[in-house]
Amino acid sequence: MARSKKPSTGTDATAEQRHEEQLQGTAGRGDLTGYLMHRAKPYLPPWVAAGALGIVSPLAHWKWDGSAAAGVGLTLASVALTGATWWAGRSTSAQRRLHSAITVAAGSAWLTSAALAGPTAGPLLDIYLMGGPTLALSWNIRQVMRRNPDATAPAENADKGLLEKVGLARTLLRGATVEPNRVSVPYHLPAGELTNEDVSKVLPRIASALDVPPNAVRANADPESAARGELVIVPVDALKGGNEWPGPSAPGGSIAEPLNVGVYEHGEPLLMWMSGDPEVSRNAMHLLIMGMTGSGKSVSALDALAEILTRSDVIVWGSDPVKVTQTFGPLIPAMDWAALDMPSTEAMVAALEAVIPARTAWLAAHRYTQWVPAAGNQQSDRAHSCGQDGRACGCPGMPYLIGWFEEAAKSLREGLDFTGIAQEARSAGVSLVVSLQRASGYQMPTDTRASLGSSWCHGVRDSGDAAFALPDAALDAGASPEAWKDKRPGYSYLAANGVPENEWATPARSYNIGPDALEWVAREFAPVRARIDETTAAAAAKAAGKLFTDRAELLGKATPAPTLPAAGGGKDLSMTTDEHDLEDDLDTDDFDPEEPLPAPAETVQLSVEPPARRIDVSPEEAREVMVQLVDMFEREERETVGPVDFMEYCDRHGRSRAWVSGQVSRMVSEGRLAETGTAGRYRIVPQLIGV
Predict the structure, then answer these.
(1) What single-letter DSSP state applies at residue 240?
(2) Structural domain boundaries of the chain?
(3) Which of 291, 303, 292 is nearest to 510 (CA)?
(4) Residue 655: pLDDT above 90?
(5) Does residue 199 have a pLDDT over 80?
(6) How does DSSP assign 226-280, residue by residue?
(7) What span, in angstroms and rounded, lies between the C-alpha atoms of 481 and 460?
(8) DSSP state of 172
(9) Which pTM does this prediction carry?
(10) Hey, what's the torsion of the CAs at 438, 401, 337, 541, to 10 degrees?
(11) CATH for 619-684?
(12) Which fold has domain 159-233?
């Protein structure tokens, strides 16, 4: 009984299936001769070629016997045919390519000799009788060895088996690029069956099949194709050892030059750009820094700030109302403004909102569509005049401004809103940096998060947290910061303006930078650092008042010197700074303790007894008293006030606490007072600057 023929599966057929079909086929006859002829057919082509060579050689000798021209032509043809064979075999294995070239070279050389001298001349006949069968048999042996039923997985199909396991069957893999600790394999998905999105979904399974960490396998999709891309496998973590800070990358340069803040796993520096560049269509950067406690985001921040504060055309406003000086530390003296409490942070946000239109107007007046390094220099170009009869204005430059908010979750909980700044600040030469542990919708408005644009994500608790910071393109490519959590401080992904998209999912690690290096940056680059321009300073002073104009003095109060016992023979170190200043101002050499004290030039009334009865005033007069009280509080340099501050005065005019609270609310709506993060306390919006 004849065996049923198994239908062919086309391109899906395996080598074993094709061999089975070959064994079951016939040559049209059911006898033994037909079976043997069918079995011999796959091995006949080399023998047919050898026989044809022997038949053609006498005819070639009859035609070209003794012809020098024919000898030259046949030799050139032999060389050309051998070269063409070598070129055509470039996509095959090295063994097959070499075997083919040797066969063609040997056959064409023998035919050239036989055509000129005759196939039986000298040793040519013996060479043919021995060499022809040898070459034919070598191809037969190669064909037999191609099938290896004992192997568990043929080497040439090992990658196919892996892809079938993970659901990417029929995917074509091109030539792999092997680098130290990195393998890149281009792929081509079957048309209409799979997309790059399917590849991103199976990356964890590929990592499992290869027994490597989950973030060691990534996929870089081709932006020009939905079916092409590149698989990248990094089997060993090259970032374990960490790297010491190498020093500033562009000391004294412009903020337009990239900041070197770490190193990628492939050894290239981790670069970010703060300012925009119209020549390459890059926008200024607003940056979200995210990572759980212990992920090392504060050290990464210091890497970036150390780079920024070595540049010559940028100023930094930094806020940290939680850790105060713990994060910024030695870099605080290098900042133009450090807000280390909530009132100062609220004032800083208000100042940033105020400086945006002022800076935009200045840039527009000097014909800049956005901040560029030329805007940070003195304006001497005639084309950038302020409309002064076409003459160069000579205005001082406007440095770039970076508002850096560490531990921003507290500021957000206290009601501060960064959305407007994030949406409007780029054109004004301002970058916003917001750092917090988890940028969820409960912590940060989604509009703010969307407006930040760039993200620097460190280790997080789970993939849901990663989605708050990283774009879908990075996650689809295999970025998985949840694999690090807080076990790999400094490990991060940077998805930012100017960073190639195929690097968004490449792990990097920030440098190890210590206090000594930070102190060196603050000290050594003080002469080259920019000073705030008048336009920005005036707008900030109007919005934040003495919290801005007295920021250096207030910073000293926020970080008092420790109280120590007096040193023998020296000043009493337990005295406050103000007491030291007073002692220094006294000329003790001219002071005679026996002389009577001089009469006072004026008398300061420290307290007044309240009147015995209340003063009857109209509501309009009472409201005017409230306005006058706010002016008085501002002159007294109070930062915040509340209804309780007004009651001791308004009780005298017969006004209740409810009425006072209503007037406070009215002044908030009018802009004279501003809400703070503390219930019942309001910040005075300055209106008496210079008075």
Answers:
(1) T
(2) 33-143, 159-233, 259-553, 619-684
(3) 303
(4) no
(5) yes
(6) SSEEEEEE--S-TTTT--B----SSTT--TTSPEEEEEETTS-EEEE--S-BGGG
(7) 6
(8) E
(9) 0.61
(10) -120
(11) 1.10.10
(12) Threonyl-tRNA Synthetase; Chain A, domain 2 (3.30.980)
